[in-house]
Specification:
There is one protein chain. It is built from 43 helices and five strands. It is mainly alpha-helical. Among the domains are: about 120 residues; about 30 residues, no CATH class; about 110 residues, TATA-Binding Protein, CATH 3.30.310.10. Strand 2 and strand 3 form a beta hairpin. The longest helix is centred in the middle third of the chain and has 21 residues.
Length: about 850
């Protein structure tokens, strides 16, 4: 059935069909404005509801502003509320119309009904029109002295609004002093709390340019003020109690008696039903006793019970927040919570984020006395229907084993997981078995006997496959079919998409070759050839390195790739102790939930790119985008990274396919006798370099192309830049948004440059000496970001814009270049990299 024509459709009862209906509303409101007939307030209510309804759905009803103001002359508080809502919505955008509201709002501020006085004062302060500031001072002064606490509460908040509209007017009217007097003497707790909140904000903003404000701000932390608030804390609501407790955290007690007095005053706050109050109280206790070790430990014992109660009595969101803080405490003092491990067992109806956090806590509190019970519980979770939780539980079992608690039983449990025949269980277990073998090599016999029965075809996850390959290479002498499993994996090199797996294949093949050369030489040859032809730079470089070090000396290669096993004593922690202490200092904040200090998610350099660079850091990696990536072509000198000058001349050449670089091809001939000869020979002498190189390639079934070297083309002259280039930030911003990225390159920064990069200015001055100028910079160690520009000396209109991100911990830099003349982008990048490489050099 076709929909009715537009002319036949019925209008929505809550939406006007056109301007005529707004006009009708206007005329009806005007008729009722001066009427005093019985029932007129009910009629006004109906019209006011229509106006508010239209305003809510985004229809402009500002044309009835005057009529709404005229109709507000009534004692009906419902009409007053709707009128104030309407006025507050349109006053800021229509300053001229706001003048119409001043008289009736000031009149209502003197009404006999305190509710109307408060509503009118709130609406008056919410106009936020700078031209009307003079009309706020009088009503606010009267409101602060009002007999009704509700009006005083509204007035205090109004003073803060006035400060944000006109700070000078607020200070000149001496409102902060009035608020301080109210804070210390008012009988209503809500008024006192509002005064404290307003004064903290006002004095914090004024402290930057007023010594008096600094002194007043410090006076809030004086002993009389703190004790005044703490003695009255039971009168305040939860929000105000948290405000007072945050203030108490900043107080510096004079002696230990002062500390105990405060804790006695707040003792009952630990039993509060509100989690925010309990956490704020816990923070006060912890901060006060940091310098008293014995008392600090007793505080942990005291706060444990209230926090555990809140975990089990609140919503999942509250439980997660409390658990996050408990987790922080557990990491700092695990022995205190060791006997309460059952509180952290997972419940079937808990969300996965709560379960995951509980698993982390079980791992942290495991010790000799409770390991068996905890591991038994964790093993039950391995069969959980939630795959993510099952994975986390297996990892938790492994982490406990790495802590050297009940290793024998845990290894048996892990090996039993391999019999569950679930892909994700097998994958996680293999990763953990690898870590266990790195720390406990004595368990290799038991583990390898089980792992050897796992088919590599059933392992699809890269980390698990890498772990299995590592064991095949590390324990090749104990696994009879290790060379043949590796050979099968290497023959399917092209089907392996993970670079991590390919890297492990190269290393495992090398290790297996040193233990069982005859069975592995063919597989190693295939792996080296495929690795050197790999498009991934790390795989290519590792294969080339192995190729050259084998060519140099097999014994040296064995000492490099397969040295004697040494047990790993400690695995690196994911967070430094400094970061953990910083999070502890920010207890009862989002830092604990995110498990990172606040600067990591609030500072601009940690949060994201510069504001004028929209696309930086925000380029999505999608299948469509990845399809446009051009495979990297290896240049002729890539293969010669470890060659001497003579070898480079001998081996330089082009392949028959026209590629600039061709990996050695391989065949399947039997060359065990030649391998034996190679194994006992030393490093090749220069006189026999070419012949020994060919013999080496024959041993592994590799064949190098011997085509003549191509004629060398002269390198183009370096780009000359204008030393006096100039570009204003606005033009830079516009060009950066308009121009496409010409090229993106990674490069290394020399150690001297990293040492000199203590502040961004040092690099800025260095690059300016190379006619490359900085327009914006930011960040702090280890991440620095710079935006540079340069101009061609011969063509000042030809600009080069560059983003340079430097990580000082890895000594790496990434540069992105945008250019008006894209054909010269590579030349400019060369100049830029040359200048960067000289940074810090004498």
């Amino acid at each position: 059935m076709a929909p009715p024509a537009a002319s036949q459709r019925y209008p929505s009862p809550s939406q006007p069909s056109g301007k005529s209906e707004v006009t009708d509303l206007k005329s009806q409101l005007r008729q009722l404005a001066g009427s005093r007939a019985p029932g007129v307030d009910d009629s006004k209510r109906d019209l006011f509801k229509k106006v508010i309804s239209y305003m809510t759905i985004g229809i402009d009803v500002s044309s009835v502003f005057g009529e709404m103001v005229m109709c507000s002359a009534t004692s009906d508080i419902v009409l007053k509320k709707m009128c104030y809502l309407y006025v507050g919505n349109y006053a800021k955008g229509n300053p001229d119309l706001s003048l119409l509201t001043i008289n009736f709002l000031q009149r209502d501020c003197k009404d006999q009904d305190p509710m109307i006085r408060g509503l009118a004062l709130r609406s008056l302060c919410s106009l936020r029109v700078p031209n009307l500031v003079e009309y706020l001072v009088g009503p606010l002064g009267s409101g602060l002295k009002d007999n009704n606490s509700y009006v005083r509460t509204i007035a205090v908040t109004g003073v803060l609004k006035l400060y944000h509209i006109s700070a000078s007017t607020c200070i000149d009217a001496d409102f902060p002093a009035t608020l301080k007097s109210l804070m210390l003497h008012d009988s209503d707790a809500q008024v006192v709390a509002n005064c404290l909140s307003a004064l903290q904000e006002i004095w914090s903003l004024e402290a930057s340019h007023s010594e008096e404000a600094c002194r007043e701000k410090e006076s809030l932390l004086s002993k009389p003020v703190i004790y005044y608030f703490l003695n009255r804390i039971k009168e305040f609501n939860e929000w105000a109690q948290c405000l007072i407790l945050e203030l108490a955290v900043k107080y510096v007690p004079s002696d230990s008696n002062d500390i105990f007095d405060i804790m006695n005053l707040l003792e009952d706050r630990l039993q509060h039903a509100n989690g925010a109050v309990v956490l704020a109280t816990v923070k006060v206790f912890l901060q006060l006793t940091l310098s008293m070790t014995d008392v600090h430990q007793q505080v942990y014992e005291r706060i444990k019970s209230p926090l555990l109660t809140l975990v089990s009595s609140g919503s999942p969101e509250q439980s997660y927040a409390i658990l996050s803080h408990l987790h922080l405490l557990v990491v700092r003092a695990p022995f205190i919570f060791a006997s309460d491990y059952k509180h952290f067992y997972c419940q079937y109806n808990e969300p996965s984020y709560v379960k995951k956090l509980k698993l982390e806590m079980l791992t942290a509190i495991a010790n000799e006395s409770n390991t068996y019970e905890i591991v038994t519980e964790l093993c039950e979770y391995a069969a959980n229907v939630d795959i993510a939780i099952a994975r986390e539980s297996i990892r938790a079992v492994g982490k406990i084993a790495l802590q050297q608690y009940d290793v024998n039983a845990i290894v048996d449990r892990l090996l039993q997981f391999l019999a569950m025949e679930k892909d994700y269980v097998t994958a996680e277990t293999l990763v953990l078995v690898k870590d266990l073998l790195r720390k406990y090599p004595q368990w290799s016999h038991d583990c390898i006997s089980v792992v050897g029965g796992i088919s590599s075809k059933n392992i699809q996850e890269p980390k698990a496959k890498s772990a299995l390959i590592w064991m095949l290479g590390e324990y090749a002498q104990d696994m009879s079919d290790a060379p043949y499993v590796l050979e099968n994996l290497i023959e399917n090199w092209e089907e392996e998409h993970s670079a991590e797996v390919r890297l492990h294949l190269l290393t495992a093949a090398m290790k297996c070759f040193f233990k069982r050369p005859p069975e592995t030489q063919r597989a190693l040859g295939i792996a080296l050839a495929a690795g050197m032809a790999d498009f991934h730079q790390d795989v290519h470089d590792r294969a080339l390195f192995y190729y050259r070090v084998l060519q140099y000396d097999v014994h040296v290669a064995e000492r490099v790739v397969s040295p004697p096993k040494q047990a790993v004593s400690v695995f690196a922690d994911t967070q430094s102790s400094e970061i953990k202490d910083r999070i502890f200092d920010e207890f009862n904040s989002l830092s604990v939930i995110y498990q990172k200090p606040s600067y990591m998610f609030t500072d601009k350099e940690h949060r994201g790119p510069f504001e004028f660079s929209d696309e930086i850091g925000n380029i999505p990696i999608t299948p469509e985008a990845s399809s446009d990536i051009v495979p990297q072509q290896f240049e002729a000198n890539d293969k010669d990274l470890l060659l001497s000058t003579d070898e480079k001349d001998d081996n330089r050449g082009l392949s028959t396919t026209g590629s600039a670089y061709t990996a050695p091809s391989y065949d399947n001939s039997n060359i065990s006798s030649q391998m034996q000869e190679l194994a006992i020979s030393g490093p090749a002498t220069p006189a026999t370099t070419q012949q020994s190189s060919f013999d080496f390639d024959d041993i592994f079934g590799l064949g190098l192309s011997t085509a003549p070297a191509p004629a060398l083309t002269p390198s183009p002259p370096l780009l000359k830049l204008n030393p006096r280039a100039a570009l204003d930030p606005g033009a830079f911003q516009q060009k950066w948004r308009q121009l496409p990225i010409s090229l993106t390159q990674d490069c290394s920064v020399n150690p001297q440059g990293i040492a000199a990069l203590t502040v961004p200015q040092s690099l800025i001055k260095h690059m300016q000496s190379h006619s490359i100028h900085c327009i914006a910079s930011g960040g702090q160690s280890p991440n620095f970001k710079f935006f540079f520009f340069a101009q061609k000396e011969s063509e000042p209109s030809s600009n080069y814009l560059t983003e340079c991100v430097i990580n000082s911990s890895s000594a790496k830099a990434q540069i992105k270049v945008k250019a008006d003349e894209q054909s010269t982008s590579q030349a400019f990048a060369t100049v830029f990299e040359t200048a960067l490489s000289e940074f810090g050099m004498p």
